[in-house]
Amino acid sequence: MEEIEERREENEAPIEKVYVAVGKEVRESKANLIWALQNFDRNKKLVIAHVHKPATTINIMGAQFPVSQLAEQEVTAYRLVEKGKIDNILKEYADICLSQKVEAEKIVIEKDDTVQGIIDLIRENGVTELVMGAAADRRYSRRLKTLRSRKAILVEQKAELWCKIFFVCRGNLICTREATEGVISPKAASSSSSSRSPRSNSLVSDLHRLSAQPSMQSSYFPPRSNSINCTYAEDMLLTMASSNSSQWTNGSSHKETMDSYPTEKPGRSNVLEEGPSTVPNDAEDGFQTESSSPHNGSADEVSIEDIDLYDRLRGAITEAEDLKNEAYEATRRRQKAERDLLEASKKAKAADSLHLQELRRRKDVEERLAREKLEMEQDKQQLDNILAQINRAHEQRIALELRISESEAMVNDFEKKLTEAYHLLELLRQEQLMNAERKGQDCSSSADFKSSSREFVYQELIHLTDGFDESKKIGEGSHGSIFKGLLDNTIVAIKMLNHDCYQKHEFSQKVENITKARHPNLISLVGACLEAHALIYEYAPHGSLEDYLHKKNHSLTWQVRARVASELCNVLTYLHSTQPNPKAHGNLKPSNILFDSNYSVKLSDLHLGMAFSRSYTSRRSTVAYVEPELLATGELIPACDMYSFGVLLLVLLSGRPAFRIKKVVQEALDKETLHEVLDGSAGDWPLEETKELARLALRCCDIKRGSRPVIEEVRKVVEPLMNAAKTSKLRSWSIGSESDFGGSVPSYFMCPIVKEIMKDPQIAADGFTYEAEAIKGWLQSGHDTSPMTNLKLPSDELTPNHALRSAIQEWQQRRR
């Protein structure tokens, strides 16, 4: 029977279990579970443990409600849904185990704190081996040797000491917390005690009964020590019971015999006072010896065997008591060692925590230093780049200064040569004039002048100019000063020429030629004063082309420039076709192109074959418009005007000074970058017509007179550009428009509804243009009629007026 019972107990012995803590995300905990399946003995039972944290709020129709505010049935239904989700998750883990041919148990603990849930799992189930995560998967690296997860750190610190914990991350063992030696889980202890035989258990129960009596216990010993100390007595009693089982009898049969022996031995009182004792007295031990004469009370009749058995029992109990005391002292030492170990562990953990903090702080400092170093390197690189740019700019500036100095030297040399040529020409002219005087040309010229224009006297000029007051001066050029005067309620311009520029007969010839030339685009000569070498012209109130190109705050549109070129073609055609002998202007430049009250072109300072003056080239800007061959020979022909007109066309196109303009435009045409040279403030030039005009202008600037086109050929190229200017939408080609000279706001720029300049003009179904927000507000407010005609609109569709918006933006830009 005993062998059968022992086999049954062996079969019923508890199976060792390995617990694996898993989370809700199967993808993250799968690797840890597979690691446990691969690294633990298949004889151990695998338990999948999950700590479920119940939700404190429930989502109802998109809003979160606390559980405390909901009905019980609603919370119950939601908990059932949660339970279903947890069951599905654990089923996935179980399927993973089945794929490895391992059948696993599942356990779920509900706890608000996951860490406390794992600790309770270890304590309540006596877990001896646990596998859990050490860090999040994204933090894993081969150098990971410490715990990164806050949960893992807390479990390591607070879990029961009998549990061995394996910390795993992404299927790699990071570290292990070993179980403390000597600390046994409650379930292990209970399983070992249950493995004893029934006979020994009865003896042990008697021993526990004796030790549990109030008279035998002492408050000096903690309850935990009793269970440990009793094991020694239990073993001793079991030994004695097995060897002398035949001598144990009922307590009532031998009471008198045991009463004859003393209950205490000498020298044992101190032991009973200092600690708990299990030595029974005659009334409490429950054991008695047999006597041959139980009723006579004589000590001689007591059996020797009974006395010997009693002494052996008493010695065993005494020895058990000594062993118990020793065990108690050992327990005290062990508890003290455990406390010391716990303190040392706390200190070690604190040191580890400080070490981790120091490592993090050091890492932060290193990262900050690395960032600062990188920023310093970037700043240094930027500084090096800036220094390199400064050096290049300095080199370029030196090169430009050198080129400028070379150019200035060339210009000075050229001017010296020009001066010498002028001097030679002057000598030749004087010689020609002397010959002309001999033939009486001066008298005939004077007579012709008197017959064709009004002759003024010097006193009239003084009266007209208030004694040549400086406030009346409106200009000053190389030939003299220009004053404004009032003649017969009409404003006139009085040009006082320098006496050293013209001889008397030269001046008379100039007046005669100007009087004979009559054209709408030529400035009209009112009269002259031969005495003072003065010319009285009609007054052009809107200044010269030079003012609008280089001096005023606004620029001319390309449409206006096209009209100026067209009108210059008209006047040059007239001059060059004069019969019998073609005539030339000889002084074509922006300062001589004036604008009258209607903003029409008025060409002034007409030479018409007169002797060339040295004062003509007193300024570099003037030299750029003069034909080089004219400077050398002084021969003025229509080809000279074509050269000046070509330079003027290039200035109108680019808006740049005339000096070296030919080279700039030629390079732009060769590189197909003419759009970069064109004056952007003039608007969007029509590129094809502009390229054709630029090529023709460069032909006009050819050094060889025979290679230059005539004015009629130029006119054919200017006309397409003029037609494009006339047909351009919403862009006035009149130089007197408000968009060109900064007048009041054009009416078509204003919204008819809000009376403000439109930002997003839209064309409605009535054909009128409105501000987008204004017309949309009009339609959305219920109106179906036109704000202008009050007629019903055929539709509410709006069309963006891109042309008007571009015109408004360009007008505003020029105004700024």
Automatic annotation (TrEMBL):
Any Pfam family: PK_Tyr_Ser-Thr
Pathway the protein contributes to: Protein modification; protein ubiquitination
KW Coiled coil (keyword) present: yes
First-level EC class: transferase
UniProt EC number: 2.3.2.27
Taxonomic superkingdom: Eukaryota
GO molecular function terms listed in the Swiss-Prot or TrEMBL record: ATP binding; protein kinase activity; ubiquitin protein ligase activity
Domain U-box: 744-816
UniProt catalytic activity: S-ubiquitinyl-[E2 ubiquitin-conjugating enzyme]-L-cysteine + [acceptor protein]-L-lysine = [E2 ubiquitin-conjugating enzyme]-L-cysteine + N(6)-ubiquitinyl-[acceptor protein]-L-lysine
GO biological process, one term: protein ubiquitination
Region (Disordered): 185-205, 244-301
Gene3D superfamilies: HUPs, Phosphorylase Kinase, domain 1, Transferase(Phosphotransferase) domain 1, Zinc/RING finger domain, C3HC4 (zinc finger)
Classification via PANTHER family: OS02G0152300 PROTEIN, OS02G0822900 PROTEIN
Name of the protein this chain belongs to: RING-type E3 ubiquitin transferase
Organism field: Rhynchospora breviuscula
